[in-house]
Amino acid sequence: MNPFWSNIFRATGYEDTLAYFLGSVPIFSKLKKRELKFLETIVHVRNYRADEIIFEEGDIGSGMYAIRSGQVKIYSRDENGNEIEQAMLEAGEFFGEVALTASRPRIASARTTEPAVLVGLFRSDMLDAVRKYPAISAKILLGLARVISDRLHQNNLQLNDLKRQMEQS
């Protein structure tokens, strides 16, 4: 191809941007490009080493994390201190979102299992955005409410299934 034309028609690289990644996270999936660019300015990107603790059970939650690359293990400990794996999360998944709404102790721990890049959105930044940019913040919080509602619905279905199984035994 002629270098002149390849320059004009080359890909923009938007798929490699932080804003594009954020748009793939279900909480932010309804945001427009302009709103994702704003979100990009209030999140925090951090590189983690393998086996690095992100937070521990009992810590007061301060925000949520989306996994841009790598893997994160969510776990709790039994009365003997043994780890009980609750989830193994991959790139594109997120965790800790309830901490955006309330300052409560974490009910599980999170640790990387390999080098990872995490994108954090913290309650303090979200509260600041609510004051300064209420319209965009409302869309983010509605996305959060939608995801929490979906998870609660799934948990209720699973709980009802377990109840039925116990009644049949």
Description:
The protein has helices spanning 3-9, 18-24, 33-42, 123-132, 134-168, and strands at 44-48, 53-55, 63-69, 72-77, 83-89, 94-95, 109-112, 116-122. 21% of the residues are buried. Helices cover 41% and strands 24% of the residues. The strands form two sheets. It has a four-stranded antiparallel beta sheet. A four-stranded antiparallel beta sheet has the order 2-7-4-5, with no helix packed on it. The model has no long low-confidence stretch (mean pLDDT 92).
- The percent range for strand residues is 15-25%
Largest sheet: 4 strands, antiparallel
Widest sheet, order of strands: 1-8-3-6
The chain-level mean pLDDT equals 92
Uncertain regions spanning at least 5 consecutive residues: none
Discrete helix count: 5
Sheet/helix structural class: alpha+beta
Number of strands: 8
Rg from alpha-carbon coordinates: 19 Å
| N-C termini distance | 70 Å
Give, in order, the helices and strands. Answer: HHHEEEEEEEEHH
List keywords for this structure.
24% strand, single chain, alpha+beta, 5 helices, 41% helix, 4-stranded antiparallel β-sheet, 169 residues
